[in-house]
Design goal:
4 helices; eight-stranded mixed β-sheet; 2,3-Dihydroxybiphenyl 1,2-Dioxygenase, domain 1; alpha+beta
Length: 164
């Protein structure tokens, strides 16, 4: 933990971190350290993430954003939901269940405020929404499902974390 504290202090002293961010970081470390013995007694997590499934970005112009991701990263349209103004992008040379172009990496949704990441999604090994609902509720969380964020739960700061 000492290298993490040193890094926080170095960043604070060099002006790259505000006092509020420093206190927040140190508080998070303290909370993690205090919870470590309790966590060691708990069983392994019921949901095992295998990676980040996708990131959803609010865009002002779907085609303009799709052109940007294609030009810089070679991402192509994997699927489109015209009714809800959603365009899903992935690598053109991959194969997978998301569609002919492969796995979705970026999901663009035309909705204000543009330029905001509105959620991200974990790919969960053997994901089952009913079991996940049970697990999340047992931990005092409120899982939800909607067109904006799919099956998700809010993190402590209100960020939607989708599970697929």
């Amino acid at each position: 933990m000492d290298p993490v504290i040193s890094d926080l202090l170095d960043r604070y002293e060099s002006g790259r971190l505000s006092r509020r961010e420093l206190v927040s970081g140190l508080s998070a470390l303290a909370a993690t350290g205090a919870a470590a013995p309790a966590l060691a007694q708990q069983p392994l997590p019921a949901m095992k993430p295998t990676g980040i499934d996708h990131v959803s970005i609010l865009a002002a112009d779907l085609q303009r954003s799709a052109d940007f991701y294609n030009r810089l990263f070679g991402l192509v349209t994997v699927s489109e939901d015209k009714k809800n103004k959603i365009l899903r992008l992935g690598p053109k040379d991959a194969t997978g269940p998301a569609g002919p172009a492969g796995h979705v990496l970026v999901s663009l949704r035309q909705e204000p405020p543009a330029g905001k990441v509105d959620h991200w999604a974990f790919k969960i090994e053997g994901f089952n929404a009913d079991k996940a609902t049970e697990l999340l509720k047992s931990q005092g969380l409120k899982p939800d499902r909607n067109i904006e964020f799919g099956f998700h739960v809010k993190d402590p700061d209100g960020v939607a974390v989708q599970m697929v």
